[in-house]
Design goal:
39% of the residues lie in helices and 28% in strands. By secondary structure, it is an alpha/beta fold. β11 and β12 form a beta hairpin. The protein starts with a helix and ends in a 5-residue tail after the last helix.
C-alpha cells in the first residue's frame, strides 16, 4: 500500500541520514548507483567471457593466478596487462622472484618498444614489506595524479602485477639471516604480513579503474585417508576472501612443430565472485619466429589463441547440447 511504501522510504532515509554524518553520503548507494559504477575492459574471445561469465573484465578488483611450475601463470598476467595497455592504460610489475620474462612480454606485446617504454615499468623488490610499499605508493600516486585538473581523471585503467605474492621473506627474516649467516628454524611471518595487507588493499581500489593481479604457486598433495586432492598456496587464506577471480592454470601437453611451439593449457575459475565458478576452458599459448622486414632481425612472437579456444568451446558445447551464452 502507499502507506507502507511511505513508511519504508521514511525508515530508509532515516537510516541513511544517520550514516551520512559518520561515513559521508558517497559511501551509501542504491542498487542502481552500484551497478552504474561497475566498469570493465573488453576481453578477446568468447572463451574467456564464458570462463568469467562476464562480457568485460571488471576493474577495481583483485585477481589471483595460481598453478604448478611452468603453467604460464606470468604469461597470463602479461596478457591481462596487455588488455589494459591497449585501452589506454598503464602497467606496473612488482617483481619479487628475480626471474622476470622480458622476452615473453615482448612477444605478447608485439615487440613495440616505444609502446612498452611509455606504458610499462617493473620494480625489483627485496622483501615483503617493500613490495607492499611499492604497490601502496604507486596506487596513491596514480590517484593523486588523476585528481589533478586538466588530466583524464578516472579513465586510465592501471594494472599492477605481483609476481609472486609470497616470494620474498620479511625484513625481519633478512635481518636474522644477515646476522647468523644462515636461515634458522622457525615460523615465517610472510603469511601474516600478506594477510594484513590484503585486508586493507580492496579499500584502495574502490571506484578506481585499477586491477591488482597476484601470482601464487600451487602445491598439490593427497589426503592420506581419503585420497582427495589438497591444494596448498602460500600467503595465507585471506587472499581467497579478497579476490574476485582466482584462475588455476594447468599444463595439458606441449606443442612442438617445425615452425611453431606452444603449450595447451587448461584454465579454471577456482573462484568467481560475479558468477558461477569451477568453469574450465582450454587455450593454446603459441609462439613462433618472424623476420623483421625493416631490420632483418628475427623475433619471437607469443599469443594466447582465444579464437581457437572459442571455436573448441562451441564445438564441445554443441556435442554436449549446452548453451554457451
Amino acid at each position: 500500500t502507499e502507506a507502507q511504501k511511505t513508511a519504508e522510504y521514511g525508515m530508509q532515509a532515516a537510516m541513511c541520514d544517520s550514516l551520512k554524518d559518520e561515513l559521508g553520503g558517497d559511501r551509501i548507494r542504491s542498487q542502481e548507483e552500484i551497478v552504474s559504477r561497475l566498469v570493465g575492459l573488453p576481453v578477446p574471445g568468447l572463451a574467456f567471457r564464458f570462463l568469467i561469465q562476464q562480457d568485460v573484465f571488471p576493474l577495481g578488483r583483485i585477481t589471483t593466478i595460481n598453478g604448478l611450475q611452468e603453467s604460464c601463470k606470468s604469461s597470463l598476467m602479461f596478457e591481462i596487462m596487455r588488455w589494459h595497455l591497449v585501452y589506454g592504460g598503464l602497467a606496473m610489475l612488482v617483481e619479487n622472484e628475480t626471474k622476470d620474462s622480458p622476452d615473453i612480454r615482448d612477444g605478447l606485446w608485439d615487440h613495440n618498444q616505444d609502446f612498452l617504454n611509455r606504458k610499462f615499468r617493473a620494480v625489483q623488490t627485496q622483501n615483503v614489506e617493500e613490495w607492499q610499499q611499492v604497490l601502496t605508493y604507486s596506487i596513491d600516486a596514480a590517484k593523486k595524479y588523476c585528481n589533478r585538473t586538466g588530466v583524464p581523471g578516472r579513465s586510465v585503467p592501471c594494472v599492477f602485477g605481483i609476481d609472486s605474492l609470497s616470494a620474498k621473506a620479511s625484513q625481519e627474516d633478512f635481518v636474522k639471516i644477515n646476522k647468523a649467516g644462515h636461515a634458522e628454524r622457525g615460523y615465517s611471518n610472510v603469511a601474516l604480513h600478506t594477510t594484513k595487507y590484503l585486508q586493507a588493499l580492496p579499500t584502495y581500489l574502490i571506484d578506481w579503474p585499477f586491477t591488482v593481479i597476484g601470482i601464487q604457486h600451487l602445491k598439490k598433495t593427497n589426503d592420506p585417508r581419503t585420497g582427495a586432492v589438497i591444494r596448498n598456496k602460500p600467503g595465507g587464506k585471506a587472499i581467497a576472501f579478497m579476490e574476485t577471480f582466482e584462475f588455476e592454470m594447468s599444463r595439458i601437453r606441449d606443442i612442438q612443430k617445425i615452425d611453431e611451439g606452444g603449450v595447451n593449457l587448461r584454465m579454471q575459475t577456482r573462484k568467481n565472485s560475479l558468477g558461477p565458478g569451477r568453469i574450465s576452458i582450454d587455450v593454446v599459448f603459441r609462439w613462433w619466429w618472424e623476420d623483421d622486414p625493416a631490420t632483418g632481425l628475427r623475433s619471437q612472437k607469443h599469443v594466447f589463441d582465444w579464437d581457437d579456444a572459442s571455436m573448441a568451446l562451441l564445438v564441445q558445447q554443441a556435442k554436449d547440447k549446452k548453451t554457451v551464452w
